[in-house]
Design a protein that fits this description.
mainly alpha
Length: about 160
Amino acid sequence: MPPELSTFLIAMSPIVELRGAIPVAIAVYHLPVWSAYLFSVLGNLVPLTLIVLLGEPVSKFISQKIHFLGRALELLFVHTRKTQQSKFEKFGKNLAVIILVATPIPFVGGWTGAIAAFVFGVSLKKALPLMVVGSLLAGAIVTMLVVGTLKIIGNV
């Protein structure tokens, strides 16, 4: 499998996302920094877009076909909105999505930002540019950390 495709696929995965794809692309596959960054950001954006695009229809389908699971999802969404609304509105929905997507630490990041956008009703038209900005920022942060670390240890 070409290293660019591997990088793209790694960046699509939950938890690892681009924060795992960029170090692998640079340190293991020896891709140029620009290539590692580009394929990681693009790979990261695929599932984020799908989450916001398909979240509503999938949750409606589940609610109609599997009633107990639909009820559980509804309770989860209501509980999440109720407990997190003030935090989400503290920065405003737009900035909150960017911050969540741009934060390159485990269990926070692109997937979390996309799920939050879906749960809090941010439309795809608004969420997509916010997620792009967040992914670009996360990619830049991770790339700088990886390149800086490799320079310190003498591998670049």
